[in-house]
Amino acid sequence: MIGAGSTGAAIAHDLASRGIRTAVVERGEPASGTTGRNHALLHSGGRYVVKDPESAVECIQENLLLRRAAPGVIEETGGLFVAIDDEDLAYREAFLEGCRRAGVPAEEIPPDLARRLEPGLTESVRAAVRVPDAVIDPYRLVLSWLATAQANGAEVFPFTPVEAVEVRAGRVAHVVAHDLVHRRRLRLEAPVVINAAGPWAGRVAALAGVEVPVQPSAGVMVALAARLNQRVINRMRPPGDGDIIVPQRATSIIGTTSWNVESGDRIPVPPDHVRRMIEEGAKLLPAVREAPVLAAFAAARPLVAGNKESDGRELSRGFQVFDHGRDGAEGFMSVVGGKTTTSRLMAEIVADRVCEKLGVQQECRTRELALLPFHRFRWREGG
């Protein structure tokens, strides 16, 4: 397994729970890439019910499963979608119908009740819908997945970037990685190698001499040094800039802009993007204008490549699994797309395919398994 973000960690957990010997290499610490820089939303699916209904269905199903599997890393805040102008109101019927079709529980409530629930909301609220959004701690979720995988025999190598993926006679043979902690090279032989490197998946695939259609799409988020809302607050419109404010511990996180980048490394944080987040966020919560900014940061979403002229908004938040056997690298697989909310589902699909390749007949167990607490993760010490 290459990558210990939410996707790689979830796959390691699934494979190990089926009794398959698993090793994970990660170039930094777990969740140090895209996963550790998202706005911590456990999606209800509401953001996708109109334009990406398949992703919406996946989100609500996995939302409910994760609440049972890892309650210690989830704050069940609930969420609100609010309309504040005529354009938002025009979207309301499509939104409610989309929720109904996708199975996302949605309750329309009076605007005055929405303001009682969230006193900081703008007085311009004209319609409001409650959905089961929640807030997740992505870092602790990843550690919980990895801790449970370790308990089932998996090995995890943080700070161990991959240097080579060896392919011989059309089949993957081994991975060479540099253990930066112990200053040694690791040669890991495996009949199956999974590339779960997120926005860096293309770079890893190139090491095996294959291509994978990943389009990194960057987004700026702004963390305020105050918790202005108790629920996730979404603008009732198609996803756009500054249309969501997520409460995370003692902060509120406004997200997000979107534009295509070449890789997930050294993403700039344009000042005008920060200003836009503040301006748009203040339309929902006026106190945003006065709240001090704690941090502004960016992450790259690993979207399945589509229209290169798109800013990323039009690309699906779904995921794809690529079997590179047809490309001359049997046993090498890449998984691209998705999100932290759907990582368990992505892992189940990938693990099913791995079992097929290995001739192993083991059913997925992660729908029922509770995860170990994050503090049970064991950082490797010694040789």
What does the model show?
Helices cover 27% and strands 26% of the residues. It is built from 8 helices and 20 strands. The protein has helices spanning 6-17, 53-69, 86-102, 111-117, 138-151, 201-207, 271-284, 343-358; strands spanning 23-25, 41-42, 74-75, 79-83, 107-109, 127-131, 134-136, 155-157, 162-168, 171-179, 184-189, 193-195, 214-224, 232-235, 244-248, 251-255, 259-260, 293-304, 319-323, 332-337. Helix 1 packs parallel to helix 5 and helix 2 packs across helix 3. The two termini are 21 Å apart. Residues 307-317 have low confidence and may be disordered.
CATH homology superfamily of the largest domain: FAD/NAD(P)-binding domain
**What's the oligomerization state?**
single chain
Largest sheet: 9 strands, mixed
Residues in β-strands, percent: 25-35%
Element string (H = helix, E = strand): HEEHEEHEHEEHEEEEEHEEEEEHEEEH
What would the CATH topology of the largest domain be?
FAD/NAD(P)-binding domain
Our measurement of the CA-to-CA distance between the termini, rounded to an integer number of angstroms, reads 21 Å
